[in-house]
Amino acid sequence: MIADEAFGWCAVEVRRNDYDRYLSVLFAPKPARPHLFALYAVNHEIAKTAEVAHDPMMGAIRLQWWHEAFDELFAGKPRHHQALLALSETLKTLKLPRALFDEIIDAREHDFDTEPFPDMRALEAYAEATSSNAMRLAARILGAGATIDDLAREAGVAYALTGLLRALPYRSARRRSVLPGSLVSRAGIDIEDIFAGQNSPALKSVIDDVASNARTRLRSVVPLSPALLPAALCPLYLRVMTRVSFDPFRDSTDVAPLRRQWAMLRARWRGKI
């Protein structure tokens, strides 16, 4: 069946490109898993826009394609894209708010900005529109509705901030800053040094500030749903990136899959991250 093929494609893509969320799906009830894979596959396809369209104009065209694709999707006429075909099956049985998808797409316009986020507030807004909204949609697939939207905000922002820190070398090599401009300026860092991959004590202080923000948000997160479980991995990644000797441009932030699985299992068992 077309639906089975589309859901299978999504599962493979999420496992290959978004392993943290793939692991979180394994903690969900079996009937919900295909729908979560569809959501996360679509989320990844939107998120990778800046990777496949380096020119801002082409990026804008691609993001507009996604807006139009969702027009057709919610009208019951999905485009022939495996992730959209799978999500169309999800929408036949589950009501997901279109606005959350639109916010995700709109936020991705910032991936083409040559200027850094002006301050932490702007960075947090981006994190909420992308990561938190993905968690809110996942929560709805799992039957929680809007009841854990506030938790999803905190967990999603923490997970996004952690992910952006991990992406620092990749983004910097493309002359995109993931750090708030106000913190960079206050630390006396020349943004060109970051783009050149130069580590420094001042840069470490900025990374520590962003990491501290993520940790603070995690304190209020109770993993009531597998939708929030990706945030359970933040402490592992943050511990690596805030070591005294850590060089963000040369040291890996990877954590073994078994440790990631254990972190999620422990969070579910203890009821906290």
Notes on the protein architecture:
The chain is mainly α. It has 15 helices and no strands. It has helices at 2-17, 19-25, 33-47, 49-52, 56-74, 82-93, 98-107, 120-141, 149-166, 168-173, 181-186, 191-195, 201-218, 234-241, 257-270. α13 runs antiparallel to α14. The model has no long low-confidence stretch (mean pLDDT 96).
User: CATH topology of the largest domain, anyone?
Assistant: Farnesyl Diphosphate Synthase
Task: Say how many strands there are.
Answer: 0
Order of helices and strands: HHHHHHHHHHHHHHH
In the CATH scheme, the class of the largest domain would be Mainly Alpha
Please outline the major beta sheet.
none
Structure in a nutshell:
With 273 residues, the protein is mainly alpha-helical.
How is this fold's topology laid out?
Layout (H helix, E strand, L loop, with lengths): L1 H16 L1 H7 L7 H15 L1 H4 L3 H19 L7 H12 L4 H10 L12 H22 L7 H18 L1 H6 L7 H6 L4 H5 L5 H18 L15 H8 L15 H14 L3
Helix pairs in contact: 1-2, 1-3, 1-6, 3-6, 3-8, 5-6, 5-7, 7-8, 8-9, 9-13, 9-14, 13-14
Considering the chains and any ligands shown, give keywords for the structure:
Farnesyl Diphosphate Synthase; globular; mainly alpha; 66% helix; single chain; 2 domains; 273 residues
